[in-house]
Amino acid sequence: MTNKLAVFDFDSTLMDGETLEFFARELGIEEKVKAITDRAMRGETDFFESLTERVALLKGLPITKVDEICHNLPLMNGAEEVVKGLQGKGYKVICFSGGFRNATKYYADKLRLDGEFANILHVKDGLLTGQVGGEMMFNDSKGQMLLRLQKLLGVKEENTIAVGDGANDLSMFKYASTRVAFCAKPIVKENADIVIEHKDLSLILNYIQ
Fold first, then answer.
1. Does the annotation mark 114 as catalytic?
2. Range(s) of the domain holding residue 46
3. Catalytic residue among 11, 109, 169, 193
4. How many other CB atoms are there within 10 angstroms of residue 168's CB atom?
5. Quick one: pLDDT at residue 38?
6. What is the domain-level CATH number for residue 81?
7. How many domains does the chain have?
8. pLDDT above 90 for 123
9. Crossing angle between the packed helical segments 30-41 and 19-27, to the nearest 10 degrees
10. Helix (H), strand (E), coil (C) string for the chain
11. pLDDT tens-digit profile of 35-62?
């Protein structure tokens, strides 16, 4: 049996929106954070710099509020269908997120994903410190993690699907023969072989044997 792997971005892909912007709304700084996010997703700024800049603005947000927000994020239309459909075709389905495990772990359980990799918000005395660490901090993090998973699981590039919307997803496109731009920024569409413009992840199944 051939080993197959499908990797999905989380924010604005499996989930309809940006987790950081939901946090920022709570603090009344949504527009400020959104402007930084948009520049990063278009590839105009370094992902690490934009991530640390945005998380620094969240200092003082209670972790109880963080978890409450993370457990009530809106799933993208078709998320459950595409995960179930791909697993039915023999794919391991994994989430890679430049966001946070508070959200990805919860939704990985809900969607029955085979795994999730994300960043971790630093907490002290029940409040965010404004610092962040983890596995998905840099422009090339998703690509490097994909390579490691392919080696671990014995999956070839031709049996790998990558789905994303922002510039930090391009690094995983390098190692996947099926590259899906989902409601994506122009730089991502240019590097994809499947472009989906409608907010319905189940449409991906039309392209996968």
1. no
2. 4-207
3. 11
4. 29
5. 87
6. 3.40.50.1000
7. 1
8. yes
9. 160
10. CCCEEEEEECECCCECCCHHHHHHHHHCCHHHHHHHHHHHHCCCCCHHHHHHHHHHCCCCCEHHHHHHHHCCCCECCCHHHHHHHHHHCCEEEEEEEEEEHHHHHHHHHHHCCCEEEEEEEEEECCEEEEEEEECCCCCCHHHHHHHHHHHHHCCCHHHEEEEECCHHHHHHHCCCCEEEEECCCHHHHCCCCEEECCCCHHHHHHHCC
11. 998 888 888 889 999 999 999 999 999 9
* Residue type present at position 138: F
Dist CA 54 CA 21 (whole Å): 9
Of 9, 16, 109, 114, the active-site residue reads: 9
d(CA 104, CA 108): 6
9 given a catalytic annotation: yes
Residue with structure tokens 């965010």? 128
